[in-house]
Amino acid sequence: MPPRTFVLGLSRRSSYVCKSCLDSLRTANARPWLARLSSNAARRTQPSTHNPRRTDDAPDPAELQRILAEELERGPEAASSPGDIDVNFFNQEAPGKLRRLRDKEEFGEISGGLDSEIETAINDLEKKMINTAKMLQRMEKQGGRDKADQLRKQFKKTLRVQYKGKTGPEAEEYGLLRISGFSGPRQRPVANLNAFLARDSVVKGGIPKPKDVAECWKYYSAARKTLALAWQNVPQEVWNFLWMILSWEGEGVENPNRMQHIYILAKDMQAAGVPLRDSQQLLAMEAMFIEGWEEEAIEAWKKAVVTLGSKPETFTDYWELGVRMCCLHGDTERAQRAAETLLRSAQPPNARILLPIIRVLAAKKETVDQAWESYTHMRTLLGETITIEDYDEVIGVFLASDHVEYALQAFVDMMFSRTIDIRGRTRLPLTVGNHFFIGKWLKRLIGEGDLEGAYKVVVYVQNKGITPSPIQLNGLVGAWLRSGSAENLEKAETLAWGMIRARLDYVQLRQRRDIVRFYTPEVLPMTKRTESEPEFVCQTRATAETFSLLAENYCSRRLHDRLRGLFEVLQQAEIGPTSFLMNQIIRSHSQNGEADEAVRLYHNMTKEQNIRPDGHTFLTLFNSLSVNRLIQRDPDLTKQDVALARQFFRDMVNADWTFDSPDIFAQLPRTILFSMLKARDFRGMIIAARAMRELFAFHPPEALLIEMASGAGSLQVKTKRNMERLVGGRRTIETLMRKHRMELIKAGHPGVEMTEEEKLNELHDVLEKLILLKAGAHNSSQEEVEPLLEEVAREMGVYDIVVARDADQIARHRKLGKQVAESV
Q: What secondary structure letter does DSSP report for 35?
């Protein structure tokens, strides 16, 4: 039979072999990937004629290190190089078509699965190691035998460390991680996988990183088709290393496709004939189940009962896995038997394995009593070790399955050390049946995000004659509104308007007269209910907070008509409007393009209804100015904005309010200054800055000065034009600061260091100089400017504060609350 062609990975037989190749095959048995080696090493590594070595094997760096380490141990023996052999290499690219290869590098790429860079690196390593051996030999000849022996030992130690490979999370050692034996155009994915496995940064410190997990699957999935051609070429060490990374679920590592990757990897290992360890078998069963092969996974679990189910090290994990899978598959009886096997074993039982059984039993009405028995059994086994989280999970299970009575009983068990049985009672005991106790439960459910469960509790306790507190129901409405989903928004509106109905009914009874129903389909959105589901009529009355929640939501969603209808209802409900509600209606009118109506409502509510405005009110008013609403400026509206801004500022100073949060403290002064800057009210800006310094303890930060100098709306907008403007603004501020410091030096200041008070004075002086620069009056003297400022100060109602500097007036009108003052 004709010999095989000298090509890696091809099992075809060719009828043609050139004479030079036949001669080389008969005479040359040295490895084609070794350029030079000592004669003794060549003799030791030359394969026997009875068991010829496959010429298409890739180089084994571990064997290379072993040979060179032995070469170092031999001492001063000279290394001789075998003579070069002229070998011609051919590659069969198609049946009957041969192509002569250029050189050994191309042959190495095709036959060994190595590209030229890796081949060159191996050759360089070989040359360096041989040169090192020769250097040590010369040292011994020159009398430095002790030094040579020391270096030889150190070099051997380095070789052993390199061969040791990587270390895993549990200090397990992985040897040489390399896949060889693939060639052809499809070997590139294998080479990429090898490059990934060889990285020093992979599993650095023994712990995989998220990047390791993602890239491991990227390179392995790309190489799977090629590896499937010869699974036997993948070493066991590589399989173990891949499993360790892809199955990692440690802290800080996100691996959302973990089970899918394990399932595919386990199938590949099975196809390769690689036996799985016990822990790997359990994880592979779970992955198979999660990937949709439920019956196959359970069948595999049954077959492993003799092996995995009887070993002490896998006993617990095996039976717990069976309980979870059987519960999810609906085989409750088998799950219960598995749980009993686990709980009756000699090993310490984990009673929480009954939680999956409780969940599946509680899902059906006919088995809910069995679920309760399993819960009581678990509670007995846990004893004092039972945690609040255990109770919360049981409560959530019963609430999800609409068994509120059982959920309440579990909550009672959690809250009281003594047993209080409430199941089957028409009326709840006084210790449980009060809105304080129910309020604690509702607060906990809302805090944990179980909003649907909280609503079921509201319906249940009201049917038991208990009216929940408006505080808890407002919390539920607010949580639904914050979620943002359309379904939850509808639920929130329905419950809130139900509370408003209860409030109106209460007002009707109190007034002893009929009132016309106010709600219309446009104002009150109705939810669709089935015929079998009775409408829940809420008996908890709405409060001002209920109206505030709806008002804020309608305003943010720009539902102006609904908001106006809500305020009409507010009057019928005889609930006095608050500053928060006033702010929402003003903001809504401003957003709807009705700025005049917004101002009218502000005057009406503050003067006629005696609503006290706050900082948010004036922030809303300044934002309603045309310079803050319109893109295209209107000169007539801008003139009106100057008068309105000064009026708003006067009202703000005279109103009795204080800052309630650092956010409004940062937003209000900035909005006032920018509003006046846009309206080109430069005199009003100077007076406002001086007044806010006294009343707000406001000091303009340097970032705000740069924004005002550049005219950019915000430092956060990173456009090229904005950045150029910001650079120019920074230069302007630096120039004004230098001018201020030169004035200080002329006045006798040493000019070396400035106190904190002097730095704050500098910021205010730069602000005023910047405003005069914007106004084109930077050359005006102080004597020319001050009389104009005094006139504006009287108009803005701060003459006593800014000009006269009356200490009593300043103390009377200060707006800085204690909490905000401490944070400034």
A: S
Say which residue, 660 or 44, is predicted with more confidence.
660
CATH number at residue 498: 1.25.40
Give the chain's mean pLDDT: 81
Do the domain assignments include residue 380? yes
**520 domain-assigned:** yes
Q: And the tokens for 729?
A: 């603004």
Q: Is residue 230 part of a domain?
A: no
Quote the pLDDT of residue 286. Answer: 95
558-581 pLDDT, tens per residue?
A: 899 899 899 889 888 988 888 898
pLDDT at residue 62 is higher than 80: no
Residue (of 341, 467, 473, 450) closest to 392 by Cα position: 450
The answer to whether residues 526 and 406 belong to one domain is yes
Tokens of 582: 């006033």
Beta pairing partners, 167: 173
Nearest one of 606, 495, 480 to 540, comparing CA atoms? 495
Closest residue by Cα to residue 191 from 58, 386, 81, 33? 58
Helix H or strand E segment including 766: helix 756-775
Residue 168 three-state SS: coil
587 in the same domain as 706:
no
Task: Give 323-377 pLDDT, tens digit per residue.
Answer: 999 999 999 999 999 999 999 988 777 899 999 999 999 999 999 999 999 999 9
Asked if 183 contacts 112 with a C-beta cutoff of 8 angstroms, the reply is yes
Helix, strand, or coil (residue 166): strand
DSSP assigned state of 609? S
Task: Pick the closest to residue 193 from 264, 113, 277 (CA basis).
Answer: 113
Sequence letter at residue 436: F
In 3-state terms, what secondary structure has residue 193? Answer: helix
Which residue among 568, 597, 626 closes a domain? Answer: 597
| 665 and 563 in a common domain | no
In a domain, 311, yes or no: no
**pTM confidence score:** 0.69
Lowest average pLDDT, out of 25-34, 170-179, 519-528, goes to 25-34
d(CA 476, CA 450): 10
One domain for residues 574 and 456: yes
Q: What is the mean pLDDT of residues 262-267?
A: 95
Same domain, yes or no, for 560 and 696?
no
CA distances from 745 to 405, 740, 741, 748, 779 (A): 81, 9, 6, 5, 20
Beta-bridge partner residues of 94: 97
Number of domains comprising the chain: 3
Range of the domain at 783: 658-719+757-823
Choose one of 164, 195, 213: the last residue of a domain: 164
Residue 132 has pLDDT above 90, yes or no: no
Within 10 angstroms of residue 130's Cβ, the number of other Cβ atoms is 19
Q: How far apart are CA 547 and CA 555, in angstroms?
A: 12
Longest dimension (CA), the chain: 122
The pLDDT tens digits of the residues spanning 390-442 come to: 999 999 999 999 999 999 999 999 988 767 888 888 888 888 888 899 999 99
**Locus of tokens 């030791």:** 44
Burial zone of 771 (CB within 10 Å; 0-12 exposed, 13-18 middle, 19+ buried): buried
In a shared domain, residues 4 and 136: yes
Burial (Cβ within 10 Å: 0-12, 13-18, ≥19) of residue 114: buried
Task: Give strand pairing partners of 547.
Answer: none
Asked if residues 192 and 219 have their Cβ atoms less than 8 Å apart, the reply is yes
- Domain shared by 553 and 420, yes or no: yes
Residue 619: how many other CB atoms lie within 10 Å: 21
Question: To 10 degrees, the CA torsion angle through 346, 352, 354, 360?
Answer: -150
How many other CB atoms are there within 10 angstroms of residue 425's CB atom? 12
CA distance 15 to 95: 10
d(CA 415, CA 601) in angstroms, rounded, equals: 50
Other beta carbons within 10 angstroms of residue 537's beta carbon come to 10
Angle of helix 258-271 versus helix 236-246 axis, rounded to 10: 160
